[in-house]
Design a protein that fits this description.
- The chain has 402 residues and is an all-alpha fold.
- The chain is 30% helix and 0% strand.
- It has 15 helices and no strands.
- Helix 10 packs across helix 14.
- The protein starts with 19 loop residues before the first helix and ends in an 11-residue tail after the last helix.
Length: 402
């Protein structure tokens, strides 16, 4: 189990200089908020969730789990309680789960999320599906967090989202009577630190996996991604071919060029002929995809300071994409049809437009799909959705009133 070396606070005694009014406010929140239900035994989170086609030496390299924070049942369950606990927001009105709903593949159906005092966030809520397998490990649309462990603490401190300082966070969790045994189970002692909170939250988020889609069923039955999947309809197979750019050199590799990052070809003698990343559907880095720019959002350039990164954004996995509308970093597209129409006619020829979206003559690549092809593409994209993640009780709120 993770056992951080930082000295935990003593939950049995008040912190030096503790503000009585602040303590009273926390106690008032605890009096009105529900208490989590802790099952015995705890649910299982630790086993690797991937099917055989998502495992190989190359694909294993996509896992961003640090050796210092492996997923344990105890750590992930503690993270689950923290993820759903409204005590972690200033007025007890929201939790991490408020902007990351299980039934929507852990994103928000609203274009912008609503924080603890009713203000809107600047960007759309990203899906948390399979974040464990985003190889670079950096988080947020602009990748400002170097790791998931860093990312999970930022919304709690954000002035719009949850509005709690790290010092206040430790005090709140320390005063809650249901946390000592959960921290003891996860870390060997009951003391609360921001490091332990971040480790547990990161474990739970990394456990949010989806590998039970019809795509997964199909991949297991073929020798090449370009083969028709036996479990697909004719429309779904046509959409898959378009996604892969089969027979369409005008598409420049189509969607797969970005969303199925290539990995090394299989070694000689390998029985399977699948040599692409057939599992994760992440882009390998933030890209400028030609969206019209917003004056208040420079994307990845806000982190790097490099104009070449202006209007470049990370992308969520396409896993469960049918449940994660609206789309793009600002939620500007309400439907998958809107997204496909953008790639047909909406890409802007910006100076740092991703090279993969340019034609040899420095023009802009257009994904020309007729209405039937758009319908086929959407039919295919829907096959990337798994059902288990959306209803699995291991990922649901442990609080009876939430």
């Amino acid at each position: 189990m993770p056992n951080p070396g930082s000295t935990p606070s003593d939950p049995g005694s008040p912190a030096p200089g503790e503000d009585d009014s602040a303590s009273d406010a926390i106690d008032a929140l605890l009096a009105r908020l529900p208490v989590p239900i802790v099952p015995d035994p705890l649910p299982s989170y630790a086993p690797d969730p991937r099917p055989p086609h998502a495992r190989s030496p190359a694909l294993d390299g996509f896992d961003n789990t640090p050796p210092t924070n492996p997923i344990t049942d105890e750590g992930a369950f503690l993270g689950r309680v923290l993820f759903y606990d409204r005590l972690l927001s200033a007025n007890g009105e929201v939790a991490c789960a408020s902007c990351h709903r299980q039934d929507r593949a852990f994103t928000d159906p609203a274009r912008l999320s609503i924080g603890f005092e009713g203000e809107s966030t600047r960007r759309h809520s990203m899906s948390l599906v399979n974040l464990r397998f985003y190889a670079p490990g950096r988080m947020f649309w602009d990748e400002r967090a170097e790791t998931l462990e860093d990312q999970v603490l930022e919304p709690i401190q954000d002035a719009v989202e949850m509005g709690v300082t790290l010092e206040e966070l430790v005090e709140r969790v320390t005063r809650a009577p249901y946390y000592p045994r959960l921290f003891t189970a996860a870390f060997g002692s009951s003391g609360v630190t921001t490091e332990r909170i971040s480790l547990a939250l990161a474990q739970f988020v990394r456990s949010l996996s989806s590998f039970d889609s019809r795509w997964d069923e199909g991949v297991a039955q073929v020798q090449s991604l370009t083969d028709d999947f036996p479990n697909y309809s004719a429309s779904e197979n046509r959409g898959k071919a378009l996604f892969l750019g089969q027979g369409r050199p005008d598409l420049g590799g189509s969607c797969a060029a970005c969303h199925l990052r290539s990995v090394a070809p299989p070694a000689p003698g390998t029985p399977r002929n699948i040599d692409a990343n057939q599992a994760y559907f992440f882009m390998s880095r933030p890209r400028n995809n030609g969206l019209s720019e917003r004056a208040d959002d420079d994307g990845f350039a806000e982190v790097t300071g490099d104009p070449a990164d202006d209007n470049a954004f990370k992308s969520s996995s396409l896993r469960n994409v049918a449940e994660t509308a609206p789309y793009m970093h600002d939620g500007r597209f309400a439907t998958l049809e809107d997204v496909l129409r953008f790639y047909d006619r909406g890409i802007e020829a910006q100076p740092n437009l991703d090279p993969i979206l340019r034609t040899p003559g420095a023009g802009v690549l257009r994904f020309r799909f007729d209405p039937g092809e758009r319908a086929d593409m959407i039919a295919f994209l829907r096959t990337l959705s798994g059902r288990a993640l959306l209803v699995d009780p291991r990922f649901a709120s442990p609080f009876p009133e939430l």
